[in-house]
Structures are given as C-alpha cells and as structure tokens.
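Async update (no meeting this week)

Hi team, since we skipped the sync, here's where things stand on the single-chain job. The sequence we agreed to prioritize is pasted below, unchanged from the tracker. I ran it this morning and attached the output directly underneath so nobody has to dig for it. Comments welcome in thread, and please keep replies under the output.
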Amino acid sequence: MAWLLWSESILFQGAALPVLAFVARKEGNRQTTLLQVTHDIAVQERKMMMEELALIKKICGAEGITVNGEKENGCPPMPKKN
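Output:
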C-alpha cells in the first residue's frame, strides 16, 4: 500500500512541476516589466527635478541684500560651496 501512495505522490508532483514552472516564469516576466517601468519613471522624475533645481539656482543666483536670512528678491540664501 505504501508503494502505491509513493507512486501517486511522484506522479502528481511530476505533473505539477511544469505548471509551477510556467506560472513562475509568467510572474517573473510581469515583475521584470513592472521594475523596468518603475525605473524609467524614477529616472524621468529625477531628470525633471534636476532641471527645476538648475532653474531655481539660476533665478536665485543673483546676489542681493540678505534680510532675516532671505535675499532681497525673496529667494533663500544659496549654500556656500566648500
């Protein structure tokens, strides 16, 4: 009787492996696509932030009189370069 249970478990495990491999591969492809899209969006947002920062530096870069820690034109003081 034990050999019958053993052979059935081997049969069902053997039949399940290809199905599990297919599902795992399909899910892996989905995860890869999601990571690529997320990465592309993050890189695009970083690029936009760097462009905005450069524009802010350009606008606030003019020297002005500092009053209460703010420049005359309302921009915060730029950090000093070391």
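Quick observations from my side:
Residues 23-47 form one domain.
Residues 2-60 form the longest helix (59 residues).
Reply here if anything looks off.
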